[in-house]
Task: structure prediction
Amino acid sequence: MGVWAVGDAGISGAVLCPEKEQQVRRQIDLVTAAIGRAAIVVFVTGRFDYLDEVGRDCLVAPTNNQVTLVGTVVDAAYLVVGDR
Result:
């Protein structure tokens, strides 16, 4: 289990733009298929329902700015170490 940071600062407005939700879904599915069980930190702006769905199988921690991104990655790393 590792920590992976995935994101695109340009992804925003899932409610107004369903194709953005699909973009988030594709990126998360690619990462989880490639690495299996992991803690995934996702850098996005907006709210995406798929992050809740995929969060049932692995730790998904969304963040939306640079300051919390660093803290979220550190928190996820602690959780990974504790899970081992």
User: Anything to note?
Assistant: The beta strands are 3-7, 39-43, 59-63. DSSP finds three helices and three strands in the chain. Residues 9 and 44 are 6 Å apart (CA to CA). Residues 3-83 form one domain.
